Amino acid sequence: MDEKVNIVFLGPPGAGKGTQAAGISRRFAICHISTGNLFRQAVEAQTPLGRQVKAYMEAGALVPDELVIQLVKDHIQSKRCKRGFLLDGFPRTVSQAQGLEAILRQQGDCLRWVIYFDIQEEDLVQRLLHRRVCSNVSCQQTYNLRTFPPQQEGKCDRCHSPLIRRKDDNRESISTRFRDFEKKTQPLLDYYRKKGILVQIPANRPAKEVEERIVRLLENDNF
Ligand code: AP5
């Protein structure tokens, strides 16, 4: 894969977008932009943006479109994205998708694939209740007490910081996030299907299998 490639990972909370994005972005040397991770870093650092988004995030509600679009714009236009980007958790509304298109049009660029992580709500709830994340916000490595436990209980394998449960990984916020996904994000499936760039993958398969599907798609592509 020699040319620039821009990808979006789309899917409900807990579908495995973040888990796959880490490995895929490394493998194809493209920058990983996770709006959720960026917001969590801003909240932790108590920046003006962090103060604006904290309450939305803890409730599992979507942050207003204009704040997200500006954040993504700043990252896409940075030098580290010159080989392309993988957007994880953005866009989540039609208005965000239109905002992204406008940014890309301005720089004579476009999206190559939108990869939809297809999985049912009942599979997600257990995943999210068993998720643990590294408390170090510059790491944010993800674990799962059932499917991907850390080597040492309660400690991050990478940086040895304590593992925590995300504040929005409780039944109430999970339900809010899933309802938002159905109402506001699912319309994007048709939006991108019509553009001919939507690829659907079964996300209830083991992580290795999901990864292989994505790698095959990207390696066999004729950029
Ligand atoms: P964000 O951090 O993006 O949360 P999310 O979309 O709810 O997605 P998650 O991080 O929960 O899930 P994931 O798909 O990455 O799953 P993961 O790989 O961790 O956003 C958080 C908040 O920020 C939002 O609620 C909102 O407030 C705000 N926000 C962010 N972007 C926004 C936007 N564009 N607009 C407005 N607001 C925005 O996997 C989950 C678990 O499953 C882990 O434990 C993992 O180990 C395990 N797992 C992964 N894959 C598998 C597998 N194949 N089999 C078994 N287990 C697996």
Brief write-up:
The protein has helices at residues 17-27, 35-44, 48-59, 65-76, 94-106, 121-129, 171-185, 187-194, 207-219; strands at 5-10, 31-34, 84-88, 113-118, 131-134, 142-144, 163-164, 198-202.
Describe what you observe in this structure.
With 223 residues, this protein is an alpha/beta fold. It has a single domain (5-211), classed as Rossmann fold. Helices cover 46% and strands 16% of the residues. The strands form 2 sheets. Strands 2-3-1-4-8 form a 5-stranded parallel sheet, sandwiched between helices. Strand 5 (131-134) and strand 6 (142-144) form a beta hairpin. The longest helix has 15 residues, at 171-185. The mean pLDDT is 94. Bound molecules: BIS(adenosine)-5'-pentaphosphate. BIS(adenosine)-5'-pentaphosphate binds at residues 11, 13-19, 35-36, 39, 56-57, 60-63, 68, 89-90, 92, 96, 127, 131, 142-144, 147-148, 168, 177, 206-207, 210.
Helix/strand layout:
Layout (H helix, E strand, L loop, with lengths): L4 E6 L6 H11 L3 E4 H10 L3 H12 L5 H12 L7 E5 L5 H13 L6 E6 L2 H9 L1 E4 L7 E3 L18 E2 L6 H15 L1 H8 L3 E5 L4 H13 L4
Parallel strand pairs: 1-3, 1-4, 2-3, 4-8
Antiparallel strand pairs: 5-6, 5-7
The protein binds BIS(adenosine)-5'-pentaphosphate.
